[in-house]
Amino acid sequence: MNVLWLAVRFSDSSLTPSLACWAGQFTPRVSIAEGALLLEIGGCLRLFGGLEDLRQDVMQGLAEQGIAARIAVAAMPQAALWLAEGGGDSLDALTITDLSWPAGVAEKLTRFGLRRLGESRRLTFSALARRIGKPAATMIARAYGEAPDPRPDFVFPLRFDEAIELPAVVENASALLFAARRLTAALAGWLNIRQAGLRECRLDLIHRQGTTPLPLRFAEATRDGNRFERVLRERLERLQLAAPVERLRLVVDSVEALPGASGGLFDEGGAKESMAALVERLRARLGEERVFGIAPVAEHRPECATRQASTGGVIVASVPPRPFWLLAQPESLAEVAGRPHRRGPLHLLAGPERIESGWWDHEEGIGDLRRDYFIALTHDDRWTWVFRELRSPGGWFLHGWFG
What we know:
The chain has 403 residues and is an alpha+beta fold. Helix content is 26%, strand content 30%. It has nine helices and 17 strands. A six-stranded antiparallel β-sheet has the order 13-12-17-16-15-14, with no helix packed on it. Strands 5, 6, 7, 8 and 9 form a five-stranded antiparallel β-sheet that branches. The two termini are 52 Å apart.
């Protein structure tokens, strides 16, 4: 594996620590330099489709957060930093006065008549060290790969708790999304490093009067930054601020293991992810109490065979097949020549499935049932679940619809 460094040089050096977590979505090896980040990307190129695609992903991520930066790639970290700073493609062509040096070094080099970094190579290391000092001479040697350049790895925090100050107070909740994007992007990178996902986090809207907590919940454990942003947008668009917001804080209390998974040949996971995203969007729009899952119960009677589950639960079908849509009250059907009719004759496809149960609560709840259930097809090709009542006075009833 070839070692390759990508340097991100920021115009605002205060952003550097908060963006180190964000960089975790590209590589586990991140190092902080003064006003810059260093990403070791040699082992990640195939994952992102090559160097150019990775560069584009990094630049797009920065642009989405509204962060101005210059990036460069080189085999040595010091070379990458100087290329990003000087804006060139070649170390030799970099202008000495455009680069960061220890105090007074740039003036000394220009006093010797040197204008480009490559011109300093005419002197030996010892000669340079006598004229500009050993630290500066070592920087040049490291940039050209003639001296080791160890960089301490950034230590990702064990708990995610990040905050940002807003440049101005915000009175409209939807306007907070752009600033919050920096926090959700950092969260996605932090989770990627930990190989973890979350089902819930909290965005605190901090104002002079106190703090307004905004919980963000997800249908399943995820570390997808797009899903974080999508749910946050839905919540903010429907939120009335109690006071102008001055600061944002994103807190994660618990995570769970979420290892990476191999992609399917035919993208089999798309339907599951789409369903989870739909549930999250409905919960954000309609409220937590209006969106729930369905869980099976050890009970034969259809009215008692399911219960409401938490919104994070999985909707599970029982066996034999049952429709998810059961009518609140079975609909009485006409009977012609012993067959059920509903705007025409129903074609019985499967059955009967006999259900006789509930004698123990005859005086409470649903009570004793005695029915023969069938899967039937209507005249307009809709699948239904019908039953024939075995107790007097009998008759046919529509009980549910299949999706």
